[in-house]
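Project standup — Tuesday

K.O.: blocked on the structure for the chain from last sprint. Re-posting the sequence here as requested.
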Amino acid sequence: MLAGVDLYTRGMHEVELKFRRLSPLAVIPAYQSEHAAGLDLHAAIDQPLVIEAGAIAMIPCGFALEIPHGFEGQVRPRSGLASKFGISIPNAPGTVDSDYRGEMRVALINHGRSAFTVEPSMRVAQLVIAPVARACIVECATLTETVRGSGGFGSTGG
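H.V.: unblocked you, prediction finished:
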């Protein structure tokens, strides 16, 4: 329940995440607005950390989560950091599997032209909790024909 709103009846599902603090610097992830899709992840660092242009840094969040079976966590860039400074996630979106119990960390890459400083407790990424469908692979001799066929990258005009 968020601000007295029954999320289930409004088309959204509430998923319980168990949170285990690993550092006193950890900030509990939180949504910044009623309709936000991602929980903000904060840097659990005690001093500023500089990411040089073109470099990648692992940013600790200071906690571990238990994501329920059937769901994943998608670690995504924050739009403001990406658009203003070129700060992103190299494997965006990063996947946190439901059986992972280690510290939540965020890989940040600096695509900008100058160094970027991550400050203590800074919001560095978003975590979106999403359902996971598992595939059952069936080997076959042929696939259903489509208009696109085997056309690859750019084949639909984009």
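K.O.: great, moving the ticket to review. The chain is about 5% helix and 30% strand. Residues 79-85 form the longest helix (7 residues).
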